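Subject: complex prediction, re-run

Hi both,

The earlier run crashed halfway through, so I resubmitted it with identical inputs.
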Amino acid sequence: MPAVRPVPEPRAPSEGAALLEGAAPLPRDFYARPALVVARACIGKVLVHTTPEGTAAGRIVETEAYRGPEDLAAHSAGGRRTVRTEVMFGPAGYAYVFQLYGMHWAFNIVVASEGEPHAVLIRAIEPVIGLPLMSRRRGVAPGRIELTNGPGKLCKALGLDRAAYGMDVCGAQLSLLPGAAGPIGRSPRINVDYAGAWAKKPWRFYERGNRYVSVPPRH
DNA sequence: GAATAGATTGTCT
DNA sequence: GACAATCTATTCT
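This time it finished cleanly. Structure:
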C-alpha cells in the first residue's frame, strides 16, 4: 500500500460534463479583488481550457498569491515592467503565462485592480474533464497524481503555453467555473527562498487532504 | 523515502 | 552570461 493521504476520488466523467453544460464562467469582478482573497477563492473552482484538440479541465486545489511591487517574490517586484510582466499591470482576469527552467510553463491569473501588478499562480488541479486528452499530453496514465500535481504539469495537461499569454480568462476558450472547496490550508510559497522575508508569508492556499496538492504541507 | 543532477531557453544584467 | 514561481530519472539509504 502506498503512503497515506486522504484520497478523494476523481469526479466521474458524467459529473464533469454536467458541470460544463450548466455553468457560466466566473465574471471579471471575481478577479478584481485583493490577491489573497482571489487566491483563496480559486480553490475548488474549475479551470477549463479548450483548444482544437478538445476540452480539458480540473478543480483548482492549490494556488499562490503574488503581490508586486512590494513582494520581492513576484516577477513584478519593484515595479519591474517588461514585455514578460506587462499583462500583470493591466486589468484583472487575463492570463499571465511564463516559462521557467527553459522547459516548463506556469499559469497565473492577473488579479486586483489595473495598475496593481498582482497575480494568482495556479499550482495544482484535480482532473475533472478530458482525462484522456490530459493523459496523452503528459504521457502519464489517467488517475495518477503526476498528471496535474504541479504548475508545470497542469500547464502541459491543459495545453497552456505561451499562446495563452494575455488570454481572457472570462472567455469561451479559457475560464473558471463555479465550484466548492473543502477545508483550506495555508503555507509559505514554494521555491521563492530568494525573496527573503517575503518567502515566509503564508500566501499559498490548498485544499486540505487533496492528493493533487503539489508539495505535501506539514500537518 | 530522500537527495542529487541534468534538461533547456526566454528574459534580464 | 546567469539564472529561473520545475520536473524527471537515477542513485543512494
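Residues 1-9 of chain A have pLDDT under 50 and may be disordered.

- K.
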